[in-house]
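Handoff note, outgoing to incoming analyst
You'll be picking up this chain. Sequence as last confirmed:
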Amino acid sequence: MAEKEKRAVNSYEQASDVEQYGELAHERHEALRNQLDRAERQHTSRTSEHEAILEATALAKTSEKETPVIPSPAERRRGAPSKKQRDASLKSQLKQAQSEMNTSSRVLSKVIHAKAVESASDAAASTIARPNALLSGSIAAFVGVTVCYFVAKYYGYQLSGFETIAAFIFGWVLGILYDYFSVMIRGHRKDR
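Most recent structure output, in case you need it:
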């Protein structure tokens, strides 16, 4: 940039006509403006860095004194939520969902989510209403009734209606036994 300035000064002295004088003055003006802008940016960046450091230090000192230590969300999530937290979360979500329902759905929801009904449902789900038992009972009922129907039709017998219930109970018992032996062999898994 210094070369350009020297050239501008030399050309300035040698300029004879007004047009060249105007161009040289403009070049000189631009060179000085660029140099001034650079110097200002350097000064501003140094000053702003220093001010930012001072401000951050002061802010850190005041925040340590004034604000209590609040654990981050990751620290709050450590461990499983307590039963009290789960119950509070369930109640708030139920209230929010029920507020968006019509009257009949809201009443049914309140009945279904009553403590007694939920306890009975959970007990049945963990004992007699096992998914494998229900599935095997349904399959056994379908297959058993189909076989009974074709055999009865071939031999001319009339079905009583108990065949479906008996086949379902037979399949259900097979499903319960399968669950029992799978737990005995593999062990109980909580992710089911």
